[in-house]
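== Polypeptide entry ==
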Amino acid sequence: MLCFLRGMAFVPFLLVTWSSAAFIISYVVAVLSGHVNPFLPYISDTGTTPPESGIFGFMINFSAFLGAATMYTRYKIVEKQNQTCYFSSPVFNLVSLVLGLVGCIGMGIVANFQGVTLKISTEINGDI
């Protein structure tokens, strides 16, 4: 069962590296495009307008996939450890898997819906 998990140590490393690159690359593209101030911009502003929004969305979607793979790998490792000695409750292991996957789904939602542009037109006339 654990044979397919051999060599999976690169997944958490790739998750952190890819996620960091997603924020850095979208920041650099936003600064070079003139969409944000280069000094202390809001992180939400660095991925709201094209082209950086597409780059940010793609990279964070892949980060969500890597996060789900990391959570599943952790679940299987703890499950295997519980077979030889009592490491933790299987219920807690399952709860941590579900919460991790929900977090990854949330990260995918954030990646696909970066910002909302709401235009409000107001008319000023004599009628109130």
Notes: The longest helix spans residues 52-84.
